[in-house]
Amino acid sequence: MNQFSGNLTTDSRLSAIAETVESGQRGSLEDGLYLDQHADLLFLGNLANTIRERKNGNLAFYNTNIHLNPTNVCVYRCVFCAFRSDLKAEKAYTFDDQMIRGRVLEATEAGATEIHVVGGLHHQKPFDWYLDVVRVIRDANPLIHIKAWTAVEINWFSHITKKPVQWVLEQLIDAGLGSMPGGGAEIFDSEIRGQICEHKADSQSWIDIHRCAHQLGLRTNATMLYGHLEESRHRVDHLCQLRELQDETGGFQTFIPLAFHPENTGLEHLRLPSGLADLRVMALSRVMLDNFDHIKAYWIMLGEKTAQVALSFGADDLDGTVVHELIYHDAGAETPEGLTVDQLHRLIREAGREPRERDTLYRRVVRDGHEWSIEEPVAAGGQGVEI
Question: Which DSSP state fits 323?
Fold first, then answer.
């Protein structure tokens, strides 16, 4: 009988995996599958929490951010998406420069350090239109960090310009791009991916684009969409592929497991993942992604209560204020369209953690009234987390 993180188990395989993780060694793909299929949730959660506290102590990070989805018109018809629209549909919209400036002004007045930009792939818009979105934001507020365009969008830009991905990224960086979000990864398995987003950039393209971004000095995030047609083996394989790229480049900042919301999608017959399923995926992700500094509990998708509990199941980040998020609310998310900093602090402290505001690059944000400044980077790996 082995005791690990307050749990007892008579399963010798689980004991061996726990000892491997406790000693700082890496679990294999097979270990991940065994954990997912045989470990009870509390055992897995305690294992994940040990790693979480080893890396980030008692801190729980958040940022003050705002979302911009410049258009919902999209050339693709992914069956899991409730956000997209046809060009002539009643719900179709496209931002102009004045609307973008208005959103940036709102972000500035709210003290946001980040604007998060993703949207549809409007087939009538040239690459310069997407490039100008970044330029307009930069002109409107040179201080705000622009986290923009997923690998799927970068792949589309390369397609319409007939230019290499590196050229596309260099143009965006010159325009003011600061980092990339992790969307579009969905699930890497080609068979499942073919059923939920058949014509979109494939998994190898997603990986190659993030590799190129890292080589150019861009930090990026990573995601996994779960709770649809995938199985345990697909999730663990996805995590291992992300871990392999992180070994190679070190360019990922955080991993965000995204719970599938079926409402208003082509998979509406499926049930929303339960809170227990959310916590299991969160904990497994923290155990498998040993080379990721941060795991995010995206409260928009999980709900505030599950996100709070996730802070003891491997997560150390709640994302942020997330004003004007549309993609997951269109798919039935019932969470608020934005939280205040005070609300985030309350959620974090109720969960027994200490809130710490960060910028996009995980540097500490210090506030003085309406003014803010950046301190030294938040160290990971359990070193210097008390800055």
Answer: B
